[in-house]
Amino acid sequence: MDELIERFLKYIYRKNTQSEKTIESYKNDLNQFKEYLTSQSIDSFESCDRLTFMNFLATLDHLKASSIARKMSVYRSFYTYLAEYMGIIENPLIGIQTPKKSKQIPDFLFVEEIQEFLNSYNDEKDDEYRDRILFTIMYACGLRVSECVNLEWKQIDLNNRIVHIRGKGDKDRIVPFYQGFEKELLEYKSKFWTKYAIDDHVFVNLKGKSLTSRGIQYLMDKHAKKIGMHMKLHPHMLRHSFATHLLDNGADIRVVQELLGHSSLSTTQIYTHVTTAQLVMAYKKAHPFEK
């Protein structure tokens, strides 16, 4: 069984992704399935019938529906691979429905909260100056954390105020930024980047190395606590806020879809629910009977 898993992982790596994290996730899911089969004295994937797989799913009932759905997607892909390339036609997933994932309203910040967060940085300190520019471009362009980590100066067109992004699945998109921010980027490049950088990455630490996703999360948490923002912040909230505020101010949803780099409009449509949440929040803050 180990050999089949390894073959499948190599196939997925070559065909669909170059992400080590994705491959590691697939490997963990398949090993979990294999260990369950072994515990039931089943020594091959083709010997797993529908009832056995249903019993395996029952061991995952502590997980969220989204996590189970992701695992089932891996197992379906695995058995499809076994049928197409290994001649193993038994597929215990046939007829088993994937649990529906509940759509959660994304967390977002009000414009005033973003301004409070960004304006509280001390530009006299190099690291805080960098962080302000970092989180500003995340909100200004709706960038993912990974896109900021990988962002290089050659992707930024300062004259036309455009950032060229290669996002998930190597999908390219163009995102503009607001007038005046090009001057801030130029100043940042002159004052901070030229002082520390050792390559073309825009956001680097004080040793010149590119920031990491975890590092950016830490920097955001640290600053939020420092200024007394009593909420759990994560960098993706700036991307959520970017989409929410554009829609709230009348942007066409298909334009927002392109700016976010979503392949499906349904992914973007979740942000239309946020406006309702925002109305409720505003009501609670303003209505006399809510006080």
UniProtKB/TrEMBL annotation:
Domain Core-binding (CB): 1-83
The entry's keywords: DNA integration, DNA recombination, DNA-binding
Protein name listed in UniProt: Tyrosine recombinase
Domain Tyr recombinase, residue spans: 104-284
Any one GO BP annotation for this protein: DNA recombination
One GO MF term: DNA binding
Organism (species): Holdemanella biformis
NCBIfam families: PRK00283.1 (NF001399), recomb_XerA_Arch (NF040815)
Highest rank taxon of the organism: Bacteria
CDD domains for this protein: INT_XerDC_C (cd00798)
Protein family per UniProt: Belongs to the 'phage' integrase family.
PANTHER family per the UniProt record, alphabetical: INTEGRASE_RECOMBINASE PROTEIN MJ0367-RELATED, PHAGE INTEGRASE-RELATED
Organism taxonomic ancestry: Bacteria, Bacillati, Bacillota, Erysipelotrichia, Erysipelotrichales
Residue spans crossing the bilayer: none
